[in-house]
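Below sits the subject:
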Amino acid sequence: MNQQKPAKRTTIYDLAELAGTSASAVSAVLNGNWKKRRISSQLAQKISKIAEEQGYSVNMQASLLRREKSKIIGMIVPKYDNRYFGSIVERFEDMARERGLFPIITCTRRDPELEVEAAKTMLSYQVDCLISTGATDPDRITDICHAAGVQSLNLDLPGTKAPSVISDNYAGAHDLTRRVLENTLATLGRLTPLVFVGGRGSDHNTAERIRGFAAAHAEMELNVEASHILACGYAPDRAEAALTEMWRKDGDLPKGMFVNSTISLEGVMRWINRQDAYRLQPPLLGCFDWDPFVALLGNGIEMVRQDVPAMLEAVFSMMEENTQKPLVNMIPPIFGG
């Protein structure tokens, strides 16, 4: 019987040959002390990329023992254009500096390749920890960090290979849905199912919010049609287009809506303002996001605010305790301001 031999394990000498450099240069890059060796950032990135492609990982524990602390910590964020991510960035900078750390932050626009590029660049600057906020593929970033012996943490969206801190999206969506449904009963004299607008059904947070939204309806013995779950993305134009298409098919305007972010809310409000039938009785709204300017829109919009200070306190605690186990810490959101 022919037995297949196990594949040969990649060594630093194999990586050196592929990168066209010395084994000692490869070792310096993987252990995070390449700057002391005066190795160029271009070569460091090339070696890191080859190591990732070859599935090579250094011994994390040994690497951390050899590696000097830079007191630099990195964060990637998907967007700057809403108050939630802006508040994360501001609070993160303050909390890092209070601890004598230097924060580096970059926006990756929900682009998986930009996320990887940002992670590799931050590793080349010898960050002690990298926090992936709202990353599309947090596990991929964790793999890159662990190969370099760097701690990885996830914020806002969870991963399976590193500790994560997220909002309790299910409970927040459930309670927000109940509030808006109760508002429809008080205003219209009857319970009316809501329409869910915004977010991506493929991401964890939106999926959990849809689950909470559906559960609240079920508790009130209301049915939600699948065509009224408009997980169309976050862009205002997509929310507006999705509502237009739903209305074209249904011929009936929704009496209430659950909006999945203030970004989507912009498109929802544009659409509402174009409907003459809403002039006397606008729809009842709830938004899983918070912005003080929303109060100026009128309509008594219910809002749930993610507890950014508590989320970041949990992140820094995990970082300081060097937590490695891929647990998920869920932080309850807050209603109102």
User: Anything to note?
Assistant: The chain is about 45% helix and 15% strand. The longest strand covers residues 72-77.
